[in-house]
Every structure is written in C-alpha cells, then in structure tokens.
Amino acid sequence: MLMLYHDTVESEVLVHKPWFIGCIFAIVLAVFLIFNVAGTTMGELLRPVIGDHAQVKFYSRIAIAFVIAAMFCLNLVLIGFVPLKIQIGIVWFELVLLFLSLFAAFDLSMPFIWANLPFLITQGVVTTVYVSAMSLLFASAIAIIGAIAKLSSNGMAYAIVSFYTSCFRGLPLLMQVYLIYMGLPQVGYVINAVPAGVLALSLCSGAYMTEIFRSGIASIDRGQWEASRSLGFGFALTMRRIILPQALPVIIPPMGNTFISMLKDSSLVSVLGVWELTYLAHSLGQPTFHTMEMLVTAAMIYWILSACLELVQSRIEDHFARSKKR
Amino acid sequence: MNKRDAILSDEVIEAKNVSKWYGAFRALTDINLTVRKGERIVICGPSGSGKSTLIRCVNRLEAHQDGEITVTGIRLHNKMRNVAEVRKSVGMVFQHFNLFPHMTVLMNCMAAPMWIKGVPEGEARKIALKFLERVRIPEQANKYPAQLSGGQQQRVAIARSLCMEPAVMLFDEPTSSLDPEMVAEVLETVTGLARDGMTMVCVTHEMGFARAVADRVIFMDRGEIVEEGTPHDFFRNPQHERTKLFLSQILSH
Ligand SMILES: Nc1ncnc2c1ncn2[C@@H]1O[C@H](COP(=O)(O)OP(=O)(O)OP(=O)(O)O)[C@@H](O)[C@H]1O
Ligand SMILES: [Mg+2]
C-alpha cells in the first residue's frame, strides 16, 4: 500500500487522545439530535434503548443520539489498538454491514433475485464485460496513437486528434451511442447494436485516454529522450522501452478511473436493446413489479466488477512502486 | 604527463563554417572545428556562449542551418536517414546524467548494445560489466540509478556510452551538477579514458582538468570560437581580451 510520506517520529494515536474523542462524541451527538431518526429503520433497531418512553419524543431523541455517539466513539478507540491492515478490514466490514442493512429496509424479495441471478450473470454480465473489454482494448490503442499525434509536430495529425478529442469529450455519451447506431445507416453503413455500442464507448473513452496518455508522456523529462536518442535508439524504441515504462505509473491511476467509468457507462448501450446488465435488470424486473430487486442486484454486480478493476489497478501500482523504492 | 605525440590523423569530427539559429537568435556563428582521432578537446566559455549547442549539433540532437558537419565520414544534413549510424559512433554524457531510472545500472549499459547492435544478452552483459569495471563500480550493477550518488550515476552514464564503443565521446559539463567531493572521481574517470587514447570533446569549467588532459582548449563566446590553442599557450598567454576576462573570472574562484 502506498502512503504519504511517513514521518519516523512516534506520535500518539489520534483516536486515543481524549480531546479528539470528546470532539467526535459531541459532533455525532449534535448530528443525531438535529436529525430525528426515531421513525427510521435505525430508530427501530434502537427501540430497546428508548424502551417504554417511546411516547416522549424528546427523550427518545436524546437516548438514540447518546447511544449512537457512544458506540461510534467506542468503535473508534478500539480500532485504534489493532494493526493497520486489520483496521481497514474492520471498517470496511462495518460499512458494508451498514450499507446492506439499508437494503434490508427495502424489503426485497430474495427468492426472485436468486431465481433471476443466473441469467443476469450468464447473459447480462457476460455481455457487459465483453462490451467493456473490447472498448477498453480499442480505446487504449486509440489513446496511444492519439497521444503521439497530439505531441507530434505534424499539424494535420494534431488537428485531427484535437478535433476528435474535443468532439468526443464534448458530446454526451448517450448522444454518441444514438448518433453512431442511427447515423451510420444514414450514410449507408448499417451497424449492429453491439458493434455500435463498442464503437461509441471506444471513441469516447479513447478521447479521454488520449489526454491521459499525452500528459503522461509529456511528463517525462526531455533528458530521457536526449539520452535515448543519443545512444542511437529510434523513435519507436525510445517510446516503447524508455518513455512509456516511465509514463505508465503516472498514467495508470487516471486510466483506472476511465476504465471504471467506462464499465458503468456501458449501461448506456442498453438503449440499443443490447442484452447487457442494465437492460436485462430492467426488462426482468419491470413486468413482475420487482424493479427494485433487479436494480439493486445489478447495482451490486456493477460494484463488484468495478472492485475487481480497482484490485487490478492497485496490483499494477504496487508493481511500479517496487521499482521506485530506495 | 601523458604522451601526446601519437600520430594524429583521421578526422573524427569536422565542422566547416557552421551556423545555427534558434528562431532569430544566432547561437553559433561560422564555427570551424576539426577533431582528429585520439585528440582531446576542452571547450570553455561563459554561460550561453553556445558550448552545449555546438556539441549537440555534432550528434544531431540539434540541427545546424548553415555550413557542414561531418562525423566519422558521414555528413549531417536535414534529409539524412542515418542519424542513428552517427549516434552509434558518438557517445554523449550529459550534465544531469539522464540515466534510465526504470532500469538497473547493468540494464542501462546493456540496452544499447542489445537493441541497437543486436548483441546477444550474455555478451552484452559481459561488455557492460567490463565498462562498469572500467569506471570502477561493478558492484553497483544490480542497483537502480536512484540508489547511487551523483558521482556514481555520472560514471554509470559514462560506462553506458562506452558500451557502444564510440569513436568519440562528447561531455557536456559532466561535473557541473555534482558536489565538490564527487567531481574528483568523475574527472579521474574521464582522465583515465583520455590516457587510454579515447577521442573526446569536453565542455567544462574545470581548468585543472583542461591543463592536465587537453590537447587543445577552445574558448567560445557569443556563439563564436574566439581563441584556441594548447593548454600551455591558452592559460599562460591568452591573446584576446574576452579570453583574459573569462580566465581572470574563472581562476579567481
Ligand atoms: N532550445 C532553445 N531555444 C532557444 N534558444 C536556445 C535554446 N537552447 C539554447 N538557446 C540559446 O542559445 C544560446 C547558447 O546556449 P547553450 O546552451 O549552447 O549555452 P552554453 O554555452 O552551453 O551555456 P551554459 O554554460 O549555461 O550551459 C543561449 O543564449 C541560449 O539562450
Ligand atoms: Mg551548456
């Protein structure tokens, strides 16, 4: 894991300082005094705390706020005792639990979800991943060519690419999807829904990634170019062996962002009737009035897929961080 | 003192009436310079006088606009397809080392022989170790450049250039970004190369080095070669006012 510069001076853990805990306690208490949660799910969970005094609005509010603030601070202090990795694990676990308890309030029909999940995965997820992966591949290829063109001294290449990035970053993706699917047949080229979707997504994220690659390549000191060229390396060799390997650590975090948003933007392809995750979730849920079930399921699946990308990204970052260590 | 009486022939670098402009600014004016095989040239002059520009024109990191430069028999011009051919035989060492930070020291040295000359990996490793030995840091071979001191990095940069076995080495202020205690180790390395008969053109303000090593000292000012001569004549008996002024400034420090 990469961290900020870590000072070697030992200091007391912040969450074990009484004044800090006092402040946090006061803040949480104040928040829950202002927002009345007695009527919500949370309030229901805390019903034992209120006990027989449920009628007394003011008392129940104070009781709830006090208990939540106390639990929050206890949690904070206890977590401060364990090692970093475990801290992260515990807090993640707690947040996921909170998040899921939110869905519990939706009163979802689990059997319906389980019944439709296999199809959602075998058809929907597969299509979504296929569309995203293809777009990712094409977008990367576009980006690297675009970046080099944009950094070149060739006026035509620069003009074409800057027009392209301006256009595809400037138009809403939904319009691009429609324009490509319905516009291309107008000029005599009939295109299927999936290729149209892939094309729109590639062009759109390719435009963003062109800028990412361009700034990454431009961030490398010109001395590296000079050293490489003076050894006799050609342009392509310099790019591949010297410049790109150094630009990648700079490029990868924003690339991860772009990939993740592309994964989710692939849901826009549903407007073309492609049987991907969003389209299926919608069409399975709608007729049986289980819209919420399918929406929540699809949302969770998107999240899991994004988390996988995040994981890959952090692995790659670790890999590059290792060669930077002194 | 080292022997200087080797028969000097074979022009490695020949510049005739070379001029260069950066836009409207004239950085080089009618430069004439001949470097023969085995010669050691030191170029000095005030900041902005065009020293770097001149040696960067020799391996075509910069293009000149007028005159002729011939390097190892190849004429440099705009339409040339064989810049790489020239660069193969011209080694360059920079003020800021410019090592490749993502490669180990060994790989920095192996890269060019492997990728340009197509030398097999095992042999490239042998060549790299040989030259790392020569600059006296073979034990650092598997470290990354960031793990070395400035002086060590510059010596690796020298070894990296030597691995291509160039006909001439260009040094652009190789010690200017080093702490005083590291200057000596780098100058010692360069002096060693000079002893072994390496042809070199070195831009430097180290006048002691120039005295000890140079066959000729060239003084540049405002893009012109103002004066050139043997170190003996140059330091004892400078002809031009600008040279005298420069020497008095630099030697008074
Ligand atoms: N890329 C460039 N564009 C415009 N002018 C330049 C460029 N490079 C150098 N110059 C100008 O050309 C002149 C010569 O520069 P050069 O770098 O060759 O000087 P130098 O003698 O090496 O100086 P220093 O001792 O400071 O390194 C300077 O006036 C500089 O401002
Ligand atoms: Mg210079």
Helix content of chain B: 25-40%
- Amino- and carboxy-terminal Cα gap of chain B: 25 Å
Greatest contact pair? A-B, 20 and 26 residues
Elements of chain A, N to C (H/E): HHHHHHHHHHHHH
Mean pLDDT of chain A: 87
The overall strand count of chain B is 10
Radius of gyration of chain A, whole Å? 26 Å
Flag low-confidence runs of chain A: none
Written account of the structure:
Chain A has 13 helices and no strands. With 326 residues, chain A is mostly helical. The longest helix of chain A has 42 residues, at 110-151. The two termini of chain A are 16 Å apart. Mean pLDDT of chain B is 91; it is low at 1-8. Chain B contains nine helices and ten strands. Chain B is of the alpha/beta class. Helices cover 38% and strands 25% of the residues of chain B. Chain B has helices at residues 51-58, 83-88, 105-117, 121-134, 150-162, 180-195, 207-213, 231-236, 241-252; strands at 11-22, 25-36, 40-44, 66-71, 74-76, 90-93, 168-172, 200-203, 216-221, 224-229. At the A-B interface, α10 and α11 of A face α2, β6, α3 and α5 of B. Bound molecules: adenosine-5'-triphosphate (ATP) and magnesium ion. Adenosine-5'-triphosphate is lined by residues 22, 25, 27, 45, 47-53 of chain B.
